[in-house]
Design brief:
Elements: E1 6-9, H1 13-20, E2 25-31, E3 45-48, H2 57-70, E4 74-77, H3 80-88, E5 92-95, H4 104-113, E6 117-119, E7 136-149, E8 168-170, E9 176-181, E10 185-194, E11 207-211, H5 218-227, E12 236-237
Parallel strand pairs: 1-2, 1-11, 2-3, 3-4, 4-5, 5-6, 6-7, 7-11, 10-12
Antiparallel strand pairs: 7-10, 8-9, 9-10
Amino acid sequence: MEKFILRASVCKSEQLNIALDIPEFDYVIAPIKALEKNSSQISRIIVNPPIFLGSHEKKLTHELKRLRQRGFERMAVHTIDHIALAKSLGFIPHGSFRLNITNRLALAEYIKMGIVDSLCAVEFKINNSRVADIPVGVLVYGAIPLMVTRRCPVSDNKVCGARGCKKYITDRKANKLFLTCDTACEILNPDVLWLADKLERLKSFSFLQLNFGVKDDVRKITNAYLNGDKPQIKNFTRGAYFKV
């Protein structure tokens, strides 16, 4: 099987340590909380800030300054505000799928703003892709967020602050849509994106990113992607990449 450049996004420090031991990952994206006790291989770590700034911007800016002083150089950016914040603090900005890049024109504008690489949007169609002047990646594993809310829909309208929240809401088909709560709350797709056995169709992209949930086994899932395995989970989706 052809060798691909992989990138990981993790939820907690235990996953970060495991991912940093896997040489196929060029970078590992990790939340600020996971970096408190971890300073190994800083050059391979991309700091992942909360997706929503709002009233938390002052505190977040202070935390990012501290990480920059410790030697962290790279930051994931989810919005235009994030790009400006990263550049003001001296971070190298890496675009996430939340920038919603669906075409070359959008990508060109973000390049002007200073991003050095980016994931495309999860709605991106690969038949539209002839990759651009910077590395462009595609998300190939993970629970895709369906919606971002400023308040948790099951915690009295307050954000609970827990990563990997055990709370969920139920859709009309009785599917459990789990939540991740921080400065905002994400409602996740009940079906997990799985493309390990479809990677040959993604050759035009520069890197492939795996977004690990709080309960995911990083080594097991990574090995499945290195081996091109068929889906190992019951509820999975192929996303919209291959749809005409």
